Amino acid sequence: MNDAVSERLTSQNLSGVARERLLRLIAQGALAPGTRINEVHVAERFGISRGPLREAARALEGEGVLISRPRQGFFVVQFTQSQIVDVYESKRWLEAAFIADIATHMQPAVRREVQADIESIEVADRFAFSETLLQFRMRLCARTHNRFLAELMLMLYRKFYIIGSVVAVGRSQGRQERILSVLHRFWQAMADEEISTAHAIMEEDTAYWLADLPPRFPETLMW
Q1: Which residue in 56, 83, 87, 129 has the fewest CB atoms around it within 10 Å?
Q2: Looking at the predicted structure, is the pLDDT value of residue 126 above 60?
């Protein structure tokens, strides 16, 4: 392997590690929504140069976790209460179409495979949970019959991932247990072909998050 390729791989590895560590700082509340990423301090803290850190920041910008502003740098994304309400109202509409797609096109054996795949979601910490939950949902979208609906669901799931990264919570374990419980109950209902029960589970879930999440965000953003 030549030196140029080796150097690129090293840089990619460093930026990948930096991305993970930045996400952890955000999930832990050390970098709150709206916080500017001080590249010099963070790079020193991570023991890396600013190049890999910027690559990591650009990757997180592409995922919607960070935003950049000209001549100011990168900031942790912020949401308003109304934006959170919009997301979870859309959840209700999209999940209704999603359930119809599963009921029509996904065979019971495949539904049971999805149900078993829930066990792949890691609960070691908030970061691992968010990452593996998103991976589970991406695999689910790959199984969705209507490809346009799959794209919309993936957009929704990525938005959940971002919100889950930046929302301030005291006890994340309880939230993880709730999400897993809903997944298990929903997919059990779908495996049993109890479609009305599946709808009710998701309606209840949406109502819970609409009551819980908006108050955790500001009504408006002040820049």
Answers
A1: 83
A2: yes
